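Example 86.
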Amino acid sequence: MDDKDFAREALAWFFRHRDAAGKEYCAACLAQQLTRHTYGAFSDAALQAVLAECFEDPGPLRVRPRGLCAVCRKHRSCLGIARQAS
Ligand SMILES: [Zn+2]
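Predicted structure in complex with zinc ion:
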C-alpha cells in the first residue's frame, strides 16, 4: 500500500465508524479530522490528492456542491454519506 491507499482507507473508515450518516464535511475539515484520527499514517499531500479524487468521483459517498459542513458550519462543497447507505 502506498500513502494514497492509506489515505483512502482512512476516509472509508471515517465514514464507516464515525457517526457520519447524514453529515457532510468540507475538504478542509475532512483533512483535519482524518489527520487527527490517524496520527499521520500518510502524508498530507497524499490525503489532499485522495480528497480531490473523492470530490471528483465520490463512489459510495456523495458530493453536495452547496453542503453544510458539520464541523465549520459553512456552506461549501461537501462530502458525505447517504443516510440509507448500506
Ligand atoms: Zn468544514
